[in-house]
Automatic annotation (TrEMBL):
The lineage of its organism: Bacteria, Pseudomonadati, Pseudomonadota, Gammaproteobacteria, Pseudomonadales. Its EC number is 2.7.1.217. This is 3-oxo-tetronate kinase. Residues 258-414 form the Four-carbon acid sugar kinase nucleotide binding domain. It catalyses: 3-dehydro-D-erythronate + ATP = 3-dehydro-4-O-phospho-D-erythronate + ADP + H(+); 3-dehydro-L-erythronate + ATP = 3-dehydro-4-O-phospho-L-erythronate + ADP + H(+). SUPFAM superfamilies: YgbK-like (SSF142764). GO terms for molecular function: ATP binding; kinase activity. Pfam families: NBD_C (PF17042), SBD_N (PF07005). Belongs to the four-carbon acid sugar kinase family. Keywords: ATP-binding, Carbohydrate metabolism, Kinase, Nucleotide-binding, Transferase.
Amino acid sequence: MSQLLLGCIADDFTGATDLASTLVSGGMRTLLVIGIPQGPLPADIDAVVIALKSRTIASEAAVSQSLQALQWLRGAQCRQFFFKYCSTFDSTPQGNIGPVADALAQALGVSFVVACPAFPENQRTLFQGHLFVGDVLLSESGMRNHPLTPMTDANLVRVLQQQTGRAVGLVAHGVVRQGADAISARLQSLQAQGFGYAIVDAIEDEHLHAIGTALAHHPLITGGSGVARGLPGNFRRAGLLGEAQAASVLPVLEGFGAVVSGSCSLATNGQVEHWRKERPSFAIDPLQLANGQDLVRAALEWAQGLLAAGPVLIYASAAADSVNRAQQALGVEAAGQLVEEALSAIAVGLYNLGVRKLVVAGGETSGAVVKALGIKALRIGTTIDPGVPWTLGLRDDPLALALKSGNFGSVDFFEKALACAP
Ligand code: ADP
């Protein structure tokens, strides 16, 4: 295997996709791997993002999984490592950002690490160490009521300090706006003073690029995907990375197109309605599934006759009242499970019928479909709508997947995605 430039560990799947898309836009050919990689990887890759599910698990487990991921990335001889967490610094007082970053730094023999979750384009700005979501402090945003990681303090120096024994310093806006050299000098001075971390301010996109440039020789970086924007440029300047255009190109696939939708968000329901006006669709009703009706078989028999003429939609998506009815009759979890199982069996059936361009709507639904298809790694391609790229699901006979969670995408997302499928 050729040498990888950047090895990343992300604490959840959507964060991993976001980071991978950022790297692809910067011209790095990027592979997203679900869980610790097993077996060899394709040779034509510049960056790997390992997607863990470690944001809210016990911190010992998060540390141990992250170290396993690091070990694999070191085996692949990455030049630089990146620990990706959410741009709202989602964590509890126990972690897992501090404990995981501590463990990765220790394993790499690194005494000083930057922490920068800022992403101005997505309304996450950092000023004097305080994180803003839009025009309010993190602690006044909806994140203060998050069920798993309530963020009640916007001062990230203090938040990170609670999670680590290493001293946390700040590179404030006054330094950041002077550019990469000033940032480097301040980082060196903090390190010399014995700090182990630096929170770095950024209120504009250009600050992220300056920070990225200043981090060219840092073995380990932690942050949101914003700060990763500056990294491809470092590799390009060092002559290690070619030009940008080719990174998002996926191989052209022969095969039918289809959409499987298990999201009941407003955006998805609108997309389903839009599709149904002019294109073939098949509804899956959880109450019928619970009554033992073989809707998987019925849906696949229906699809078989239509696929050659154009893409089809199979959906369980429904309006809130009908979802409530199913949930009351079956239980929230059981209803979800039943639908996820049916839709993933349908996705496998569609693949067996020759579908090679598959749009999946719903975060949990996507997870279930990817698992049922036995896909462990995705090569990231062009962005369809913000946050949703086409990907190539690697298996003996690969297929293109667009995995869209809940509220993403314009009303014609399904049609648009299939029109630009690889
Ligand atoms: P989103 O990204 O919009 O949150 P998910 O796929 O993550 O979508 O979650 C939607 C959940 O709702 C899944 O568990 C899915 O199986 C379930 N579901 C889908 N359709 C129905 C329905 N008609 N009734 C009840 N639950 C449903």
